[in-house]
What does this fold into?
Amino acid sequence: MSRPHDTPPTRHVAFERLHNFRDMGGYRTADGRTVTWGALYRSDSLAKLQGADWDRFLALGVRTVIDLRYPWEIAARGRVPQAELFTYANHSIEHRPYDQAEIDPDTDPWRYLADRFAEVAEDGVEEIRRAVELIADGPGPAVFHCASGKDRTGLVAALVLTLLDVPEEQILADFALTELATERLVADWRAAHPGRTLRWPSYGRAPATVMALFLEGLTARYGSPSAYLTGPVGITPATVARLRERLLDPAPQAPGPQA
It folds into this structure.
């Protein structure tokens, strides 16, 4: 999406029905490069797009849509409108469904979520690899999403930023930005489930602690998050190179010799 030269990039893209649509640009890598603005987005369910929201989405120029939800979620709630307009793929990375609304209020919420993330990392290696490869090789810009844009989306975002060599501090900060959407996500749940009680008081939350615990777990088991990605997930050096070429601004030029 082109931007006027005097208009700064905006991480949160405003929609009426989407609450967690974000541009992943602007993060700095360890070698000083920057993730390109307008190249990769993360979101809650694009099935909610309609009216002015749909027009706003089309204006972003998105060409690849990766849906991380279960097929049964898509059957029940729909997918991005006019999916034939995009390179669309459903890569359901989670294999053990659970109902966050029913989590025991006495459970340590952040440890619980980190443990669920670990299950996804174990079960979903094939789907995670395919999602990353499509981000690297599919037409861009690209967007990936789940239902709330929080857990499955947050996990893939963290892994992509890891492959781009973005420091963990920024990865945790990106994950925690979902906290700005929590109130609206809870309101959506209540509207969709009249008569049900939301038992878990931490529904819709995404503190950095969850992602920190998850990344610590990958390090304890595999040596590092990067080793997990290049080992069990099977991300090749060639895929990493294509991902970095697509999503990173050109490296800063070294100053030339002085006259």
In short: The mean pLDDT is 93. The two ends are 39 Å apart (CA to CA). Strands lie at 22-23, 40-43, 64-67, 87-90, 142-145.
